[in-house]
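Query structure, 232 tokens:
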């Protein structure tokens, strides 16, 4: 799809990668960018139209899809990470919270906006996933990884369903991105702007997936290695 002239809705647009998406879309010539956040007053990027959205609240998602009838590009960016071992007693509740935000949220948004995208000529959906859709940081990311693996699988299924109405779905996988979520994490971090530019290029090129950095590309290549990356 063409980014220039598009009307985008970015979830979690108040900070981190979502704010970078909002800036990058405007710089690339988007006609309008709706920046969704739980607190719309926190969306301060000039030129971005703030809207209220908690992705775990179905009534808010449905109301927004009725209100924003001009959207052609949905960026499912909002996410949470709660790290800790799966054998800890509170892991089940942490898993539910991360599933609601990271997997059910994007599904709910895609369901609600699919008719809007269809009415506007097809457009596209971007799902921000992770290298942790494919592997787990031992004792830490079990629940987060499960939520991102679920979001990946849901996106793969939705891509096929959306094809019938001419809607592209791009899955974006990255290792550490330099945002609040990865604060304190060791090792290299990709700049959010670099994730955004690769995603916009993938949209323009009609690609299905972005492998944003060397670690992600290495893990992806290692899925069929012996032993597979997720067993190493
Ligand atoms: N940072 C990384 O290393 C990394 C790597 C791979 C993938 N990702 C993914 O990239 C995406 C963006 O994360 P980030 O790095 O920018 O993290 P971040 O700086 O922590 O930002 C997370 C964003 O999601 C929003 N959010 C969380 N729960 C929400 C909800 N229920 N409804 C609406 N918005 C909600 C937050 O809003 P509030 O300000 O209201 O909390 C915030 O805007 C996420 O999907 C994350 O999983 C991040």
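Result returned for the query:
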């Amino acid at each position: 799809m063409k980014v220039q002239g598009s009307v985008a809705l970015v979830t979690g647009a108040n900070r981190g990668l979502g704010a970078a998406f909002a800036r990058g879309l405007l710089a690339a010539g988007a006609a309008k960018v709706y920046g969704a956040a739980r607190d719309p007053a926190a969306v301060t990027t000039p030129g971005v139209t703030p809207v209220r959205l908690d992705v775990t609240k179905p009534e808010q998602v449905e109301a927004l899809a009725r209100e924003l009838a001009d959207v052609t590009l949905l960026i499912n960016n909002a996410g949470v990470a709660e790290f800790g071992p799966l054998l800890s007693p509170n892991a089940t509740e942490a898993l539910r919270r991360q599933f609601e935000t990271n997997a059910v949220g994007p599904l709910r948004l895609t369901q609600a906006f699919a008719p809007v995208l269809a009415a506007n000529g097809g457009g596209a959906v971007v799902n921000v996933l992770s290298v942790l859709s494919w592997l787990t940081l031992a004792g830490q990311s079990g629940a987060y990884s499960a939520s991102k693996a679920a979001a990946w699988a849901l996106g793969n299924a939705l891509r096929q369903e959306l094809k019938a109405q001419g809607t592209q779905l791009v899955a974006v996988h990255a290792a550490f991105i330099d945002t609040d979520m990865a604060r304190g994490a060791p090792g290299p971090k990709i700049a959010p702007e670099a994730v955004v530019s690769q995603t916009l290029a993938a949209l323009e090129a009609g690609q299905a997936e972005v492998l944003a950095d060397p670690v992600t590309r290495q893990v992806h290549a290692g899925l069929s290695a012996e032993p597979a990356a997720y067993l190493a």
